Amino acid sequence: MTTNQLQQNQSQPPAESNKQNAIVTRVAEKVQSMVANNQINIPENYSIVNAVQAAYFKLTEVDFKKKTSLIDSATTESVAFSLQDMAIQALSVAKNQGYFIVYGDKMQFTRSYHGTQAVVKRMSGVKDIWANVIWKGETFDVEYNDRGQLAFKAHQVDWKAATGNKDDIEGAYCIIERDDGVQFLTVMTMDEIKTSWSQSSMATVQNKYPQEMAKRTVINRASKAFINTSDDSDLFIGAVNRTTENEFEEGRKEINPEYEIRQNANTEELDLEPVDMSIPHYQAVEPNLVLKQGKLEFEQVVEEKEPATTNGPGF
């Protein structure tokens, strides 16, 4: 190979990277179009472009152990769907509200418990949501209210009891408060939390951060009823449910994504033709996100493009 050929190849990014970059940009534009058409509501302080751009940078970070980036490890369809679900929920990886995981060649967006709290607060009629851990030595009291629902009564906290040790946690609870002041309580014992954890492949994280993971588990359980009874946009609720299904089976148990990913991941495949990057203008077949009967689907379009000249996001 000549020096000129080598320099030319080094200056031209891979065709697949260009396609994935185009998907990221297209997702941002599509979600913005949904907002403009009143199909979803996004908080005024949420920048779709900034959030997707931050996610793009996160996805292009190279894992030095695997010698590749997340975006190059997954199909373009799963990358687009995971970015779409993040943006529709108005979440940001820069705020630690979620993260991307690749199982096989499928990418999924998973919410952190901070992300789930943010999502629930966005729902119609919800004022606030919070969770706490109950440590050994603390007193936690509940009662049945006049509607026959379990209600919070008191939690006498001993700050010295918060050892950070999983064996010192007795349980966790989550309270969701509506705009009218009515509160809904969800309580889980540590045995219930451990049962949920036993179905998960996140044992290392659970053992290292048991307090945070206990909150995450009880928040997810508490929020499920509000998610499924909400009168918010179907597109918004659909994105929330898809993200939740990445973590739960039958609405209760956390799943091991290693063997459940085939059931929960998007299975739609696209036949993408190879692109010749050596010519100034080329025909690239890329998936296009379109809205059909309330659902986002991919269709193939052929566009004439010029090769990218930078390695940046391009928007």
Automatic annotation (TrEMBL):
One Pfam family per UniProt: RecT
InterPro entries: RecT_fam
Region (Disordered): 1-20
Annotated organism of origin: Sporosarcina psychrophila
UniProt-recorded name of the protein: Recombination protein RecT
